[in-house]
Amino acid sequence: MKISELFSVEGKVVLITGGYKGIGMMIARGFVENGAKVYITARNEAGLQASAAELGVLGECVAITSDLSSLEGIQAFSKEMLGLEDRIDVLINNAGASSVAPFAEFSEEQWNSVVDINLKSPFFLTQALLPALLRDDYVHEHSRVINVVSVDGLGTNPYETYSYSSSKAGLIHLTRTMARSLTQKGVNVCGLAPGTFPSDINFPARDNPEACAKVVPAGRVGNDDDMAAAAIYLSSKAGEYVIGETLTVDGGLVMATPYGIKG
């Protein structure tokens, strides 16, 4: 029952997609600072290497450039990753994309490009990395898969982000169905639903946090500690018995307008 043991992630091998900026970087920093070996991957090689160098001052962080928007890219990355590690303790499917356009003008490309990275990639990446995630003694030990969803998958927002909100709602349900299939193979699957955190996708929170804070019951936008703590909880012994659930980390946003009733 010691806090230092319940919430420890020391020595764990952690892979975070889209881990070089925004929410991914918040999570990566938390794991690195607490003794995990962290791999971050994304398409932006320059940004990826810069973030790995920054985190490397705090602990162990390895950058691998990848394009997870296609099955070919997922397979190529997974082959490289499995060549480096035969065991992955935590996979965080965080990479995401969004697109905004009026309903009558929303294109197929805007739909496919977002759904491919937000919904298809977490499924097929987890599938490809399954050999490193499986655990024989699943009663006493599970690896973790955390799908980063969004409060936009729990309710509606005032922006015309049709493919984004649909893909995140789908990912919440996919999280449950993956958990049902994988739990007795030693893989716990959960979701993490951020609210108003500064990022490229949530640029209002990044560029004007004071205005955004006014619609959040907690009175502020989310910070690095909020996001890292939630991910560490789900990845540690403390979160071992939480399976298939999506943890909402939003300062109460889904209770407030314009999100309406959570469901």
What does this entry look like structurally?
The radius of gyration is 17 Å and the shape is globular. The chain is built from 10 helices and 7 strands. The longest helix is centred in the middle third of the chain and has 21 residues, at 108-128. It has helices spanning 3-6, 22-33, 45-56, 71-84, 108-128, 130-133, 162-182, 203-207, 209-213, 224-235; strands at 13-17, 37-42, 60-65, 90-93, 143-148, 187-194, 246-249. Strands 3-2-1-4-5-6-7 form a 7-stranded parallel β-sheet, with helices on both faces. The chain has a single domain (3-255), classed as 3-Layer(aba) Sandwich (Rossmann fold). It starts with a helix and ends in a 14-residue tail after the last strand. Helix 4 runs parallel beside helix 5 (108-128) and helix 5 packs parallel to helix 7 (162-182). It is of the alpha/beta class and 263 residues long. Helix 3 links the parallel strand 2 (37-42) and strand 3 (60-65). The protein is 42% helix and 15% strand.
